[in-house]
Specification:
By secondary structure, this protein is an alpha/beta fold. Helix content is 44%, strand content 15%. Strands 11-12-10-13-14-9-17 form a seven-stranded parallel β-sheet. Strands 3-2-6-7-1-8 form a six-stranded parallel β-sheet, sandwiched between helices. Strands 21-20-19-18-22 form a five-stranded antiparallel β-sheet. Helix 26 links the parallel strand 13 and strand 14. Bound molecules: adenosine-5'-triphosphate. The structure holds a DNA duplex (15 and 10 nucleotides).
DNA sequence: GTCAATAATTTTTTT
DNA sequence: AATTATTGAC
């Protein structure tokens, strides 16, 4: 174990106060790169290593599974000895753990399924069909987001405000959706939190167990907790009141999914005896980057207000790349990347939306630069992977009819909607699940022999797997199932490149199960399914690989890189146009930009393009309003070789030589320039045809 | 019930 | 541009 003196030597005086604060509520309110996460790790090590707190009495919550892993690693390095019984994970993973043990109180058997957004959507569509609501009038995705919003705010169908015909229908769908989830013994992401709130607030005995147990609760990234998470923290800490939260109101970027910045702003009201610690020294970034980032976020109102300073050197100016279009932007990024001569793992390229990764990927591929994309189409969202997972989910939870319907005809067994409809009717009449109706298929009249045989085959493989679900590990059970249903065999017969890559993905899924078994204490398929459900793109990111990383700004939260490129800094994209009407959403976009810049240790590149392809065609784009919020003297500008020119610029025309730009008119695709050539004559040219280039220094003339 | 052609829709961010 | 939903032929 690291000696106390040594432990504390890695901290500055304020951090030390936070880490060694004896008891009661503590709020660490601090800006980017001030060591909040470090303080949290040291606090855990201090409590366990020096205050005799047992690991099982500590709950530490991080924002992602990856952050949890890293935290575990850091704490382990500071301590020796067993820390396994420590609860360390995201809110969602802690909630699953609680519900797997005690979910029965609120009506869920331990083997419940976790439904992702796609599953939710298909349930909603199913319900809307039954309620005869047209998908044109009631967009299922819009309804899903309304329901999700309501759940995050802890509003049930009873409490949902009805103000018109539309909201009336939302409530009907919402109620039916919840009933259906229960029937399927499944929870959606929002339920994982919601049901824990119900459990802890409705069952005193359960609350006692957990609030007794967690003598110390620590939460990282507290500014991005939502109402449900807030209540969970309140309930769990009600007994010992040792609640240690760290966060930065300027880094709250998940408002869109219910995160409430007031949770951190009101913490001092909720706990009047709180010890608030402010950390103001930044250890991450150069002085210049810090200045630029602070200037931007200063434009927000209602902040808690922090002044960051640093002992780091001033550093290099930010570079603003002005590109012609997204391809040019990608090229210029690559050029700068090459020019710097650094290791590829030093770079991250950030963007606001996942769609922006494509042109960058293509350019990097052409340039032969290795890269990793975090996010976008996730591995576990591919059809073949979801199919196999659905098989396993059905085995674990036979009431999971969403999964059943997904795979009853995949691989093809000739079971179409008609047969499924007949089964559903029977299930409805008998009050049984869809799978049970397959078990009792023989009782159903008017089902032809060929369908019956197909369903018997299906039933046999599921039953076989069910029999060994407790004996076999995740990988073996899954591999047996793939064999039994002939999933790979069917793909092999297709003999297409597409099918080949699907087979590869199925194999990769299997190997991820193998590695799960090596890691986990619970080797069963249940544990694996839970891990898969909660797995996110960033969790799989390997930062040590020698490659450039591409990710969204949201995914970069909490990370740091020597060099950061922030691309697509255009009005409508970053800030996104959807935020234009709402001042608070615009402020969230600004915080997003603040988070982006403060990821950088040494250098920040900003880029925008004058034209960007959207919905097929090219659309003019204008520099982000946020760029104007950075003091000009902190920025060097780099213009595209296809750059538009300013009045007064010296340019070279391919036929007529060097000229000076006298006037510019028109915009977008249709810009004309009046040029005065060295020879003395003037000419009007169309920029897009003239092929002008910026003239070099020697060409300068008066 | 299956498959292919056509039409519609899509881009905000994610546990 | 590309993915997804719908329609219609077999
Ligand atoms: N006392 C210290 N001495 C030296 N380096 C420190 C100290 N505290 C933190 N650091 C370093 O500063 C960097 C930022 O720390 P950390 O990630 O904990 O900050 P943070 O406040 O959580 O950042 P953010 O909110 O931006 O994610 C890390 O590289 C960390 O090692």
């Amino acid at each position: 174990m690291k000696e106390l003196q040594k432990l504390l030597a890695d901290l500055n005086p304020e951090q030390r106060v936070a880490v060694t604060w004896p008891e009661g509520p503590v709020l660490i309110l601090a800006g980017a790169g001030s060591g909040k996460t470090r303080v949290l790790a040291y606090r855990i090590a201090y409590l366990i290593g020096h205050k005799g707190v047992k690991p099982q009495n500590v709950l530490a919550v991080t924002f992602t599974n990856k952050a949890a892993e890293e935290m575990a690693q850091r704490v382990q390095n500071l301590l020796e000895g067993e820390m396994k019984p420590l609860w360390l994970g995201t809110f969602h993973s802690a909630c699953v753990r609680i519900l797997r043990r005690d979910g029965e109180y609120v009506g869920y058997a331990r083997n419940f399924s976790i439904f992702d957004e796609t599953d939710s959507l298909s349930i909603l569509k199913e319900i809307m069909k039954e309620l005869k609501l047209s998908e044109r009038e009631y967009n299922p995705k819009a309804i899903r987001s309304r329901i999700s919003g309501a759940k995050n705010a802890l509003v049930g169908p009873e409490g949902y405000p009805v103000s018109n015909r539309y909201t009336e229908q939302v409530v009907r769908v919402y109620a039916a959706y919840n009933a259906r989830l229960r029937q399927y013994n499944g929870l959606d992401f929002d339920d994982l939190l919601l049901k824990v709130v119900e459990l802890l607030s409705g069952y005193e005995n359960v609350k006692d167990i957990y609030s007794d147990r967690f003598r110390h609760i620590l939460v990282d990234e507290y500014q991005d907790t939502n109402r449900a998470q807030y209540l969970i923290v309140q309930l769990l800490s009600s007994k010992h009141r040792n609640i240690f939260v760290v966060g930065d109101d300027d880094q709250s970027i998940y408002g869109f999914r219910g995160a409430d910045i007031n949770n951190i702003l009101d913490f001092e009201k909720d706990f009047p005896d709180v010890k608030t610690v402010r950390l103001e020294q930044n250890y991450r970034s150069t002085r210049l980057i810090l200045n630029a980032a602070s200037s931007v976020v200063r434009n927000n109102v209602g902040r808690m207000g922090k002044e960051l300073w640093t002992e780091n050197e001033e550093g290099e100016k930010l570079v603003l790349i002005e590109a012609a279009d997204e391809e040019d932007e990608a090229m210029m990024i690559c050029e700068n990347l090459f020019r710097s001569g650094r290791n590829l793992r030093d770079f991250v390229i950030l963007y606001r939306t996942n769609a922006q990764s494509r042109p960058i990927e293509e350019t990097m591929r052409r340039a032969g630069l290795p890269y990793i994309v975090v996010g976008g189409m996730r591995f576990y969202e591919r059809k073949e992977v979801k199919d196999i997972i659905a098989y396993m989910r059905l085995v674990v939870n036979p009431k999971d009819s969403v999964s059943l319907k997904r795979i009853v005809n995949s691989p093809k067994r000739g079971i179409g909607p008609a047969v499924v409809g007949r089964l559903e009717r029977f299930a409805g009449e008998q009050g049984i699940s869809l799978y049970e109706s397959i078990l009792r298929i023989e009782e159903i009249e008017e089902i032809q022999e060929r369908y019956m045989n197909a369903l018997r085959g299906f039933r046999n493989v599921i039953e076989k797997a069910k029999a060994s679900v407790d004996e076999l590990g995740a990988a073996e059970l899954m591999s047996q199932m793939i064999d039994d249903v002939g999933y790979i065999r069917e793909l092999e017969q297709e003999r297409t490149r597409e099918a080949g890559s699907r087979i590869e993905n199925v194999r990769e899924l299997l190997s991820s199960a193998v590695s799960y078994e090596e890691r986990a204490t619970d080797r069963s398929i249940r544990g694996f399914l839970t891990e898969v459900s909660l797995f996110t793109a960033i969790d799989g990111w390997n930062e040590k690989q020698e490659a450039v990383t591409l990710m969204t700004v949201h995914n970069a939260k909490g990370l740091e890189f020597p060099v950061v490129f922030i691309s697509g800094l255009e009005d409508g994209l970053f800030p996104h146009s959807s935020s234009f009407e709402s001042p608070s959403e615009l402020e969230e976009e600004r915080r997003l930009f603040y988070v982006s810049m403060t990821r950088a240790k040494e250098k920040v590149y900003l880029s925008h393009a004058r034209e960007r392809t959207r919905f097929g065609g090219p659309m003019p784009s204008f520099p982000s309003r946020f760029l104007k919020e950075i003091p000009e003297d902190l920025i060097d500008t780099e213009k595209s070789k296809f750059s538009q020119f300013d009045v007064g610029d010296i340019v070279r025309h391919p036929d007529w030589g060097v000229a000076k730009v006298l006037r510019l008119e028109g915009d977008g695709d249709d810009v004309r320039a009046v040029l005065r050539f060295e020879a003395g004559f003037e000419k009007l040219v169309m920029l897009k045809y003239a092929g002008l280039t910026r003239a070099s220094k020697e060409d300068q003339w008066g």
